[in-house]
Specification:
Blueprint (H helix, E strand, L loop, with lengths): L4 H40 L3 H21 L5 H17 L1 H21 L8 H12 L10 H14 L4 H13 L3 H11 L9 H23 L2
């Protein structure tokens, strides 16, 4: 059968699109794998040296995916999150160097696609780093930048568990306990994330514990 020009164009378009769709599906599957891997590392491994080693391995996997897909921001975000977890497990100057590397990766991700992962993770992760890392001259911590990025995360994901939890954590660190309580209460009403049950369970437990601390601080203030 002879194809008309329009049908020929459609046929070529579909044949060219199919591999691209397959690649996207494979990419999404690998990104989901990074998310599930991090959920395990962050919430189910409690020994700090083991957690640091597992986080480093996960960061290497994300880095490999980032090199394979240099135009995509998602692997950079997960690499940064894994490095941040490794930094927290290690602490000290080694942890600070990892936090700086994570910050640089998140800034690259923000430049490529600030909406990567669709939940404000780029902004929330940057804000959390600025909130938790020591300030000058030791580190790059900056409460003003932390607040600005965390509020961007809230704007991108107003009902999210992580966006509200990390904003609350920042407010608690700043002694703003009433605001922290409000954000934590909102975090605890966040809708569940399908496939992220481990992360949801772990983060809700952290939010509940911090909420109790914030309420106690309010009582004695």
């Amino acid at each position: 059968m002879k194809l008309t020009p329009i049908l020929l164009a459609l046929a070529l378009g579909f044949s060219a699109a199919a591999p691209a769709l397959a690649r996207d599906a494979a990419f999404d599957t690998r990104v989901d794998g990074l998310a599930h891997g991090w959920d395990h590392v962050n919430f189910e491994i409690h020994d700090k040296p083991a957690q640091a080693a597992a986080a480093a391995k996960l960061a290497a996997q994300a880095d490999a995916l980032a090199h394979q897909f240099p135009a995509r921001a998602e692997p950079l975000v997960w690499e940064a999150i894994a490095l941040s977890t490794e930094a927290g497990a290690k602490g000290g100057l080694g942890g600070l160097a990892l936090a700086k590397e994570a910050k640089a990766l998140l800034e690259r991700a923000e430049h490529i696609n600030p909406a990567a992962l669709g939940d404000g993770s780029v902004y929330t992760s940057l804000g959390s780093l600025y909130a938790q890392v020591p300030g000058f001259p030791v580190g790059f911590g900056d409460p003003a930048k932390a607040r600005a990025y965390l509020l961007k995360g809230i704007a991108a994901n107003p009902n999210g568990l992580d966006s509200n939890f990390f904003y609350a954590d920042f407010l608690f660190r700043q002694g703003q306990y009433a605001g922290a309580v409000k954000a934590l209460e909102k975090a605890l009403t966040a809708p569940p994330r399908p496939g992220r049950e481990i992360a949801d369970r772990g983060r809700r437990a952290e939010a509940q514990a911090l909420l109790e601390k914030a309420r106690q601080k309010l009582k004695h203030s």
